[in-house]
Amino acid sequence: MSKQYDILYIQQYLEGRLSAKDMHQLERDALEDAMLHDAIEGFRLTKNINHKQLSLLQQQLESRIEAQQTEKNRFYFTAQRLTVASVAGVMLIVIGVLFWMTNTPQVSNSANKGSQIGMEVHIQDKANATLVSGSIVPKDGWVSFNDYLSVNGVKIGEGEEVSLYFEVKDNQPQNVKIISSSNLQTSQELIRLLQEGPLWEGESGELKIKF
Q1: So where does this one cross the membrane (predicted)?
Q2: SS3 for 133?
Q3: Three-class DSSP labels, 104-132
């Protein structure tokens, strides 16, 4: 209800002693509150109403209103506590992640400093593949193919040069033939890299690869 109605006010309504505006407001509130509606209907059917009965019913109405307000307050404070708890939980997670990000790289850098320097020096020596003849082309481009060889060809010694020929079927190197190479191990490793590496386009061709 938008306001509290006592029993005497309801009795005035039933006797037609309220203004049209007040009667209309009471009827609207009765539609929204079943307790008020039942009280009005009960008074309408009762011819003789004494003050003791009025006082008892008024207490019931006031108790109903107070219970509704208490329920609203309880829901509000419960929702407020849940919101505060959620925000606190998110902040705790963020702080934990920041703490981890701040400390983990320092440990990793100090523990693997030597190996990281070695990797950086090795990657600087980039492999270079050149098309000698034919129509074969790496599907992702020559730069990407050279990067693939540089990163994955760590078993091939620096300064090695290999000339080879292969055909392309279903974008895969087929019938790989070594034309020139310094040793068998380098040839086998390069064939493996070609067969497990990027896709190709074209029909066939000869490559010269230098590490």
Answers
A1: 82-101
A2: strand
A3: HHHHHHHHCHHHHHHHHHHHHCCCEEEEE
The answer to whether the CB of 209 falls within 8 A of the CB of 149 is yes
* pLDDT band at 202; cut points 50, 70, 90: very high
pLDDT tens track for 57-94: 677 777 878 887 887 777 766 777 778 778 888 888 98
User: Can you tell me the distance from the alpha carbon of 7 to that of 9, in angstroms, rounded to the nearest whole number?
Assistant: 5
* Sign for the pseudo-dihedral over CA of 77, 78, 80, 85: positive
Break the chain into its structural domains and give their ranges: 1-111, 122-210
pTM: 0.41
Between 105 and 158, residue with greater pLDDT: 158
| Whole-angstrom distance, CA of residue 164 vs CA of residue 131 | 10
Return d(Cα 60, Cα 76) in angstroms, integer. Answer: 25
Could you read off the pLDDT of 42-57 as tens digits, one per residue?
Answer: 888 775 555 556 567 6
Q: Tell me the three-class secondary structure of 1-53, residue by residue.
A: CCCCCCHHHHHHHHCCCCCHHHHHHHHHHHHHCHHHHHHHHHHHHCCCCCHHH
DSSP helix/strand/coil, 160? coil
Residue keyed to tokens 């030597």: 114
**174 has which bridge partners?**
167
Query: In this model, does residue 110 exceed pLDDT 60?
Result: no
